[in-house]
Amino acid sequence: MRNYKTQIEAAKKGIITPEMEIVAKKEYMDAEKLRASVAKGEVCIPCNINHKSISPEGIGMGLRTKINVNLGISGDCKDYEAEMSKVNMAIKYGAEAIMDLSNYGKTHDFRIALIERSPAMIGTVPMYDAIGYLEKDLVKITAKDFLQVVRAHAEEGVDFMTIHAGINRRAVEAFRRDKRKMNIVSRGGSLLFAWMMMTGNENPFYEFYDDVLEILREYDVTISLGDALRPGCIDDSTDAGQISELIELGALTERAWEKDVQVMVEGPGHMAMNEIEANMKLQKRICHNAPFYVLGPLVTDIAPGYDHITSAIGGAIAAASGADFLCYVTPAEHLRLPDVNDVKEGIMASKIAAHAADIAKGVPHARDKDNEMAAARHILDWDEMFKVAIDPEKARAYFESTPPAERHSCSMCGKMCAVRTTNMILEGKTVEFCDE
Description:
The protein has helices spanning 7-12, 18-26, 31-40, 80-92, 108-117, 126-134, 143-156, 169-177, 187-199, 204-207, 209-219, 240-258, 273-286, 307-320, 340-361, 368-378, 382-388, 392-401, 418-426, and strands at 43-44, 59-60, 66-71, 97-100, 121-124, 160-163, 222-225, 263-267, 292-295, 325-327. The chain is an alpha/beta fold. Helix 6 packs across helix 7 and helix 13 (273-286) crosses helix 14.
């Protein structure tokens, strides 16, 4: 029988939990050092007590950058079997988190199946599910109703929830005063903004924040403080609305820690490359070094169909500058619900960004795989190269699609392969290209 409710409560009491032991081993970290980071809120371990299939992961300072995969049905795409194939893709390629963003009909059965089978952390946005779950129009939903949905997701085993508690009246005032090109692009944020404007009430997740925290604490659900006012185009980044909400999120972070609830803070969005590093440092400062979870940032607005690339560029800079958790973006972003191939492309782009950032940050053992690849390339060991590659199947398929006459090189250079030439000379051999 555990004598603590949450990971952060245990850490404050000096207890190293089984989940901390697992995470410490994965991160090549001393468990006591990890416990101290969890106690300070600099690391969170999202792990609902009802998620039995989870393989715990840590998010935060000094740890590997983690990635999240978004999926879920919409009113135009209601195929849960297709969504489960995306789940399988995410698990196969090592995504540490999956967010079910379903926003149509009754999503309970899919979420239960997802939680039962997934070793990855599961996240949701209760605001998305509220209308379908409650079968009420937005204006008729009460604050008590919203809390009911939060409790339902917590009981089911969700490990972290995006709660847009920072878009209160003060933040809305700053947003409305400082005109934007794109206004609000957060789906949950726009729904809350609409609810506040239509009812005249304060944001229920802000007004009844302590009640939200009590629910989350009961099941050890990590609160992911949503950025409802994140920029939706590069021209809107780092404006009064974004920063005003961030200030609110900093205060909400401390309130959650006081209630022994683990915290992540969400960030932008769309942002020019030269602003990213400063935004990461600003967030960490204002939010007391809480783990930072970013969508992108997308570094240009003109690449629909390629936004997995614009996101990977921004994500690599963000993570190298202090972000801890990257939400993937697929080529379908801004265009349609992603299919399974889009999901794979998004996962790969995000994993590359995260890994590149870990190398830059000096995360322990981050370079190991790169060194293994260099060693395999040095001796032209193709099978070992494929084994080490982030996507072995694609690497092998490319190599074999245009096979070389001899396996000593690829079809680009043939016998003029620089590695082959140098190896032969250093071995005292003669390099010859012309047949007798």
